[in-house]
Amino acid sequence: MIVAGLGLRSGCAADVILDLLRKAHERCGLRPDLVAVPAFRYREAGLQAAITRLGLTLRAVTPDELAAAQPRCITRSVRAQAALGVASVAEGCALAAAGARSRLIVPRLTGTHATCAMAQGENA
Fold first, then answer.
1. Cα dihedral 66, 15, 118, 35 sign
2. Averaged pLDDT in 10-residue chunks for the chain of 124 residues
3. Any alpha helices (H) in 1-124, and if so which ranges?
């Protein structure tokens, strides 16, 4: 399974999300099977619009799942750590949703008001 993890600010536009997902796809040559986001961002309008346009499944990552994935993350954001208590949102979401033995295949990419990373589960 290939999972795209997203971190985004409130009000992030669908086009920003679509652009980041396209860039992640170009980096690894793989299309995500699903997109994972922190549970508190699940209902964002721009996110929902992007997911609908792509026809992908969206998964909410709980705070505990996101925290548990942090030791496997490559990048760290001081700002995210201060605001959310985790240093890597996109990578953490991708790894959490892809499973305990998953690995990052695209480290954090940064866009306007959003970040994206991709992880591959052990069965992919």
1. positive
2. 96 97 96 96 97 97 96 88 83 97 96 96 73
3. 14-28, 45-54, 63-69, 78-84, 89-98
Other beta carbons within 10 angstroms of residue 8's beta carbon come to 24
Q: What are phi and psi of 80, to 5 degrees?
A: -65, -40
Question: Exposure of 49 by Cβ count < 10 A (0-12 exposed, 13-18 middle, 19+ buried)?
Answer: middle
Alpha carbon 20 to chain centroid, angstroms: 10
Closest to 122 (Cα-Cα) out of 103, 108, 107, 97: 103
Place of tokens 């609908």: 52
pTM equals 0.93
Q: In what order do the strands lie in the sheet with 114-120?
A: 57-61, 34-38, 2-8, 114-120, 103-111
User: What's phi and psi for 109, nearest 5 deg?
Assistant: -110, 140
Residue-level length of the chain: 124
What residues contact residue 70 under an 8 Å CB cut-off, 6+ apart? 86, 87, 88, 92
